[in-house]
Amino acid sequence: MYLEIYFFLVAVSIFFLLLITFSTVSKVSEYPRNFCCSNKDFAYSNKIYFILSMLFFLLISRFPTVLIPHTLSADESTMLAQAARFLAVDFIPWRSVDTGTSGPLNSYVLLLPKIFGFPVDYVSGRIVALFCLQIYAVFLFLGLIRIFGCSATMLAILPTLLFIGLATERDFTHYSSELLPMALLSICFYALIMTYLKDSLVLSFLSGIFVSLVLLAKLQAAPLAAILVLLFMLFYFCNHYQKGWRVFRVFCMVILGGILIIAPITIILFLCSVFDDFFNSYINMAIAYANQPLPISKLWNLIEMTSESKIYFQVMIILLLVSIITASLTGSAKQSLILKKTLNKRFITLIGLAILFLVTAIYIVLVPGRLFPHYLMLLTMPVTILMTAIFSLTLSIIYAYLTTTH
Predict the structure, then answer these.
(1) CB 252 within 8 A of CB 189
(2) CA-to-CA distance for 362 and 96, rounded, in angstroms?
(3) Phi/psi of residue 68, nearest 5 degrees
(4) Burial classification of residue 285, based on how many CB atoms lie within 10 Å of its CB (0-12 exposed, 13-18 middle, 19 or more buried)
């Protein structure tokens, strides 16, 4: 009985996600023609409904794993034990707890349910995992619609939602060390996008804070955070090079935001005489991990280790090819006029930056030299960003074709 109700609720959630997604695609005339444009053309009601549907879908689809009272992974058990020790013995990292390649923030966040009276156990840990996924999905969505519009974003994010929501393999259902960095990266991504649109020094400062938090959550994700900021600064400079002093101030605010978190923690580690332990355990161990990276040919072997990751990436590749073919066939009729309407320096730059972001993600997945499927969670964000960019191009070409032929 309960199982039937569960699958019914999941089916209803998927139905509403699909309905809202494809209802926006039919409104091609509302599609923003200028990238990084204002938000006035966005379907506001559809955006709110889609966010609520995402939250509800992830809640219902992940809820059965939340209730499992035993461990699903050794990493999950380790981080829960570290959190319990932080609470019971000593809150200073690397003095009572060596968190290994996972940063202390991954264990600290497991103490949040304790504030509301929940014990530090597997159930509360997976509640934290659920919230991380919800934060990740919402801020990734909010950032993408600001650049590429609702229709392209909804289409691209839907397969990622289904993957992270309906996955049943233990590598994707336990509280893994990738979930918190994913949430922090999505918040940082949104803050950087809003920094560009609003030219806000406060938001750039906040993005620096979240970048530094990624370093404390999982050092493996640090290059992804760093390249995200560097690519943003490159794009910001290319479009605001005439405001050189403003660009410099934004960059400085990002750095200051990072220093605000890193500097006090470094001082505390020195004062507690554990800086050497931190450096040897966290930094040197990460460098040792990176000494034997896997060749690029092993990426598909990693993807094929679980049927769910294989299906997800196959679907994304198929959608990518279909989108490119559709754009090519549509644009071939009146190529010069359509390309003039859709392609510009800003859009080409965005595509190039999305590809660089994906290449960096592939590198950090392969560099540890280990075939752990849960590393693939770090690929979902750059893959979704690139897919959104391609869908945005396709929808823009379709819109240009319709306006040109009529």
Answers:
(1) no
(2) 34
(3) -70, 120
(4) middle
| Predicted pLDDT of residue 29 | 42
Average per-residue pLDDT for the chain: 81
Helices assigned H by DSSP within 89-198: 104-108, 112-115, 122-148, 150-166, 170-173, 179-198
Residue type, 319: L
For residues 370 and 360, give the distance between their C-alpha atoms in angstroms, rounded to a whole number: 17
Q: Distance between CA 232 and CA 203 in Å, rounded? A: 13
**Per-residue pLDDT tens digits for 306-317:** 888 899 999 999
Region class of 36: left (phi > 0), else alpha (psi between -120 and 50), else beta = left
Contact (CB, 8 A) for 349 and 238: yes
**Alpha helices for 117-149 (secondary structure H):** 122-148
Q: Which two tokens stand for residue 22?
A: 């494809």
Concatenating the DSSP letter of every residue in 267-302 gives HHHHHTT-HHHHIIIIIIHHHHHTTSPPPTTHHHHH
Q: Cβ contacts of residue 115 below 8 Å, gap of 6+? A: none
Return d(Cα 92, Cα 396) in angstroms, integer.
52
AA identity, residue 217:
A
pLDDT in tens, 138-152: 999 999 998 888 888
pLDDT in tens, 319-360: 888 888 877 776 555 554 555 555 566 777 788 888 999 999
Q: Which of 212, 207, 203, 214 is nearest to 231 (CA)?
A: 207
Q: What is the residue whose two structure tokens read 């923003």?
A: 32
The pair of structure tokens assigned to 232 is 């943003």
Residue-wise over 60-87: b if at least 16 C-beta within 10 A, else e? bbbeebbeeeebbbebbbbbbebbbebe
Q: Is the Cβ–Cβ distance between 373 and 305 less than 8 Å?
A: yes
Alpha carbons 28 and 16: distance in angstroms, whole number: 20
* Cβ atoms 351, 320 nearer than 8 A: no
Provide DSSP, 354-365. HHHHHHHHHHHH
Contact 109/128 with Cβ under 8 angstroms? Answer: yes
Which pLDDT tens digit goes with each residue over 171-205? 898 899 999 999 999 999 999 999 888 878 888 89
320 close to 155: Cβ distance less than 8 angstroms = no
Q: What's this model's pTM, rounded to 2 decimal places?
A: 0.89
Give 3-state DSSP helix, strand, coil % of the chain, rounded to 5.
Answer: 80, 0, 20
